[in-house]
């Protein structure tokens, strides 16, 4: 079946004629001249065509949190002669927001009269806004709404949240991603209860003393919940203000941050004083009624709503924007669109002196005249410098315990799985995972045999296992032979890839099934060693067995691994509902698929967090499912491990098969007498295993 053709994009609507009433209309000819459009020479006042009662006095910098010395207060450029009153922009945006306030059905968005509320009611309102703003960080509104409702039902007040533990918090947050946000909410709630008598401060400065609240959240809470004239700047606000003022500057530059925060601060409207006379209210009803009872909060929410629904990164709806007449980026686009392609040979428009040029903006990214002729609002704000995500690997072991071989064959009833709690800080803080070792980013993926040794060393630090349990070649003492756990099977699982905000991590799992009268005892946490950082150990120090130090010279960098004292045995049926991340859910889904003979992930490994789409990593080729299913059906053949001297699937053959499924290599086992091929490894019975490398075609894509 031929591939579907993509539908042709709708032709862009023609732009209106140039706006001759814009305060910067007289500067457009010089700023967007065809000969100098990439550099766009303009004066600093080009961006300062709005004025308000809070301008041009130096405005405060973005709120600083826990800094010894606050940075110097940034100043806005001198206001342009004939600058537009900011009240015009405020009324337009507030009137527009009044019409769309309820369009997306956000349960935390309420139009309340703060003057009629007491301190506890305003603090409760602040708590609702706080939770919503933290959840909305890097998460879409449609995704957040059900989580917010579930959260407020579980923790209706800040005191209820402060009394909870991290397990309850993570269980409600599970699936929303970026789990450190939930931990910060819990820490902040405890700070509010312990240091502020359970009431959130009303000012941005006071809110900054709460754990987990930064400048943006402080501005949002103080303006929306308390009616304070506080600025709040997020990605949507940066985009709206950059296009409104045609600012094309590096996003990480301090001068850019200072300008955006200063502009956002002077544009926030004040909360009008309550009128004492009804007559005055009637006379001013048409003006004061715009924006509801809380104008600062409505203005900040309106800016965010405008950036999220109209002033979008791609294909902005400029013809629907309430600020299209004031938007300088739109004015530039309209001017360029209606400028003759071949202007007459006349004197070029006068450009400002080089000493008076704007020092904030960077050149526009136009390399040809045709690109410059398509100048539009999407060029603002300046594109962020893309940083490539690093690729990392982890080795994982799904450790299962059953009481007998019959229980292992029958199914998951009575089966327990080993989970380890991650540290309370860092990636996936406080969640549970299968025992894992995160390999250093700079290292290459170790071969299967080395990965197995890493996991053996890790499991020996987590479980109280008799010597030789995980190394069949080492005999156990006669006294412990009867009680030592036996390995029923040890098979590879399909690798999975999880995409995080800053890295792509590929997990290389294997499944280990132990059989004994009771689950192996868990080792307690070792005495803290202040000289070494937490969760970091070197390979050589982590290998307790004599035969585990063969490859100690391969990786000498510190390895991050699961820690003793944080492990627990969980019934297999409870693993999907435990506080686990998306990667653990995918590994468990792959394990269930292997047991069922499918050999790939199932629906249970999806939807626990954002991402999970790796390029070629973690996928299962056709035919691999049947191979993995064959391993699962042959698990009972590995029961001989621990009874005889044979290694069965725990020795070189299992690792050779793991290599075949994990590394995309074809493993060939031949007799020792065969010659002409370079030996790659030895398996049981005196035979040698060789790998025939599959060469994959080069990809046309480059990310």
TrEMBL record:
GO cellular component, one term: nucleus
GO BP annotations, alphabetical order: base-excision repair, AP site formation; mismatch repair
Signal peptide coordinates: none
EC number(s) recorded for this UniProt protein: 3.2.2.31
Reaction(s) catalysed (UniProt annotation): Hydrolyzes free adenine bases from 7,8-dihydro-8-oxoguanine:adenine mismatched double-stranded DNA, leaving an apurinic site
Cofactor(s) demanded: [4Fe-4S] cluster
Stretches for region Disordered: 1-44, 57-78, 272-296, 466-493, 518-555, 597-626, 642-665
Bias type Low complexity, positions: 466-485, 518-533
Acidic residues bias: start-end ranges: 544-554
Assigned protein family: Belongs to the Nth/MutY family.
Protein known as: Adenine DNA glycosylase
Originating species: Rhodotorula diobovata
């Amino acid at each position: 079946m031929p591939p579907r053709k993509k539908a042709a994009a709708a032709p862009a609507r023609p732009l209106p004629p140039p706006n001759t009433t814009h305060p910067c209309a007289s500067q457009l000819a010089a700023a967007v001249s065809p000969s100098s459009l990439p550099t766009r020479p303009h004066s600093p006042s080009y961006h300062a065509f709005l004025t308000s009662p809070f301008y041009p006095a130096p405005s405060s910098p973005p709120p600083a949190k826990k800094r010894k010395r606050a940075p110097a207060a940034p100043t806005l450029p001198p206001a342009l002669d004939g600058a537009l009153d900011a009240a015009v922009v405020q009324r337009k945006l507030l009137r527009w927001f009044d019409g769309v306030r309820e369009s997306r059905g956000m349960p935390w968005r309420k139009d309340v009269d703060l003057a009629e509320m007491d301190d506890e009611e305003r603090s409760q309102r602040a708590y609702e806004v706080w939770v919503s703003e933290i959840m909305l960080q890097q998460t879409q509104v449609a995704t957040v709404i059900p989580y917010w409702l579930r959260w407020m039902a579980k923790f209706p007040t800040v005191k209820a949240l402060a009394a909870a533990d991290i397990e309850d918090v993570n269980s409600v947050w599970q699936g929303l991603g970026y789990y450190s946000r939930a931990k910060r909410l819990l820490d902040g709630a405890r700070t509010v209860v312990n240091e502020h008598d359970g009431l959130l401060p009303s000012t941005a400065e006071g809110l900054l003393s709460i754990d987990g609240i930064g400048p943006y959240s402080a501005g949002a809470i103080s303006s929306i919940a308390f009616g304070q004239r506080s600025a709040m700047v997020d990605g949507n606000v940066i985009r709206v203000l950059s296009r409104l003022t045609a600012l094309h500057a590096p996003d990480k530059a301090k001068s850019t941050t200072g300008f955006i925060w200063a502009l956002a601060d002077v544009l926030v409207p004040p909360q009008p004083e309550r009128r004492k006379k009804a007559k005055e209210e009637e006379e001013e009803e048409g003006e004061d009624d715009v924006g509801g009872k809380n104008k600062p909060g409505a203005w900040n929410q309106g800016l965010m709503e405008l950036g999220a629904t109209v002033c979008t990164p791609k294909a902005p709806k400029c013809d629907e924007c309430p600020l299209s007449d004031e938007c300088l980026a739109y004015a530039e686009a309209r001017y360029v669109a209606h400028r003759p392609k071949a202007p007459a040979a006349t004197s070029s428009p006068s450009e400002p002196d080089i000493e008076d040029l704007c020092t904030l903006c960077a050149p526009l990214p136009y390399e040809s005249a045709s690109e410059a002729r398509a100048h539009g609002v999407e060029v603002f704000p300046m594109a962020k410098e893309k940083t490539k995500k690093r690729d990392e690997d982890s080795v994982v072991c799904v450790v299962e315990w059953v009481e007998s071989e019959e229980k292992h064959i029958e199914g998951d009833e009575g089966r327990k799985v080993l989970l380890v709690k991650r540290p309370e800080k860092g990636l996936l803080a406080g969640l549970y995972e299968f025992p894992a070792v995160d390999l250093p980013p700079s290292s290459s993926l170790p071969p299967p045999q080395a990965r197995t040794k890493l996991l053996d060393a890790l499991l020996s630090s987590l479980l109280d296992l008799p010597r030789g349990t995980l190394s069949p070649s080492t005999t156990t003492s006669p006294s412990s032979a009867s009680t030592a756990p036996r390995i029923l099977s040890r098979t590879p699982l399909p690798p999975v890839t999880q995409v995080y905000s800053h890295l792509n991590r590929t997990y290389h799992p294997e499944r280990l099934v132990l059989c004994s009268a009771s689950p192996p005892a868990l080792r307690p946490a070792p005495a803290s060693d202040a000289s070494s950082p937490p969760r970091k150990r070197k390979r050589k120090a982590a290998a307790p067995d004599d035969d585990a130090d063969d490859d100690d010279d391969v990786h000498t960098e510190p390895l991050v691994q699961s820690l003793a004292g944080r492990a627990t045995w969980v019934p297999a049926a409870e693993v999907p509902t435990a506080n686990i991340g998306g990667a653990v859910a995918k590994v468990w889904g792959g394990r269930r698929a292997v047991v069922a003979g499918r050999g790939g992930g199932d629906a249970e490994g999806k939807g626990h967090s954002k991402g999970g789409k790796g390029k070629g990593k973690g996928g299962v080729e056709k035919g691999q499912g049947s191979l993995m299913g064959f391993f699962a059906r042959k698990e009972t053949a590995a029961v001989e491990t621990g009874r005889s001297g044979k290694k069965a699937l725990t020795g070189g053959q299992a690792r050779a098969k793991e290599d075949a499924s994990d590394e995309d290599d074809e493993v060939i086992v031949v007799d020792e007498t065969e010659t002409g091929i370079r030996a790659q490894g030895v398996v049981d019975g005196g035979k040698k295993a060789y790998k025939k490398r599959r060469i994959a075609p080069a990809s046309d894509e480059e990310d």
